[in-house]
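This entry is listed below:
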Amino acid sequence: MHIPAYICDAVRTPFVYEGGVLSSLRPEELGAIPLMALMVRNPHIDWEQLNDVLYGCAYPSIRGGGSSARLSNLLADVPAAVPGALINRFSGSGIDAVGSAARFIKSGEASMIVAGGMDSMSQANRLNSARRADGNAASTSVGNFEAVGLENLLAQMEYGSLAMAESVERLAKEFNIERRSQDRFAYASHRKAYAAQQNGYFDAEITPITIAQKNGDPLIVTRDGFPSRVSSAALAGMEPLSLDGGTITQGNSAPAGDGACALLLACENAAHKYSLMPKARVLGMTAVNVSPDAMGIASAVAGRKVLVQTGLAMDEVGVIELNEAYAAQAIAVLRDWRLQDDDPRVNPNGGALALGHPLGATGARLVLTAMHQLHRAKERYALCAMCAGAGQGIALVIERV
């Protein structure tokens, strides 16, 4: 049985850099916000008939743990009978949730699912810092498996660690990606994201968040905390993370962020029953693994594989949303695909280098942003791809309807 799986609505919180105005919210609190927005936007749906909520999260809170998605349901007042499940594929968690929801619908096991992702990198990094201070986490380079204890392996997968930067440095050398190209790519991401924000392209994606203040009126967050109009000179002046001839800097690396994103997927019957307007169809998703010390190139492998799976060629793809974990990593993927560094189909509204990277939410945001861009550009197919910790990669294709 093959039943089309449609994305009928989607919304996200603003994305804010680590330590910003969303830093007090736990992942499950962030995840509840787009869920509530979907329910408000679609009051005609009988939400008790929702089959599931699938949320990706790379760093669930200690309090929420594996029940974070279920807690988001309860915080959002989703009917108590609706289950919730957490998916963790590190950075690929959000895409995985969307693709998994589509598979349930295509198989006929579900008719309507909310899928997305959430993460608070502010809280995750505070926890990781506390662990390191207590000596409970090792600092081990990717690919060094001489010490095979669990803590060593976990340390290799931490977002933003020097170990990941070292693996991307190796990619930069392999693909001859000099520092200037990386900074140029990062500058373009900021410039495109700022223009998209100014043009109101993100307005349809974002639901506001109200943050209570100890003194004064509540703070209402309506826009992404960044992008900024960063200068190319400022990027060029940043010190490398590794002083031993390195090219990776904070400026050409995606900053950690806080945020959540949720998409409403349905079969044709459910869409008709609840007067939903399908906006895109999920054609396929695939996940791959490469060596952990080559993590960044996994996006390229996954992208090629999902195109074969869906029977498409790269020149048929009108929109490419590629996660920008690092500028060098993104450029390596484009060169592996034999595309130009500045291919206009790639992240036309900027990416994680400008918007920040709440790990579990970013993949879902790629799908949401790609869906809107397909309609703006009147293109047919979009490819969303990203790498994830420990050598994982994941990619998904959607079609405009």
Remarks:
- The chain is about 35% helix and 20% strand.
- The first strand starts at residue 6 and ends at 12.
- Residues 135-151 have pLDDT under 50 and may be disordered.
- The longest helix spans residues 179-198.
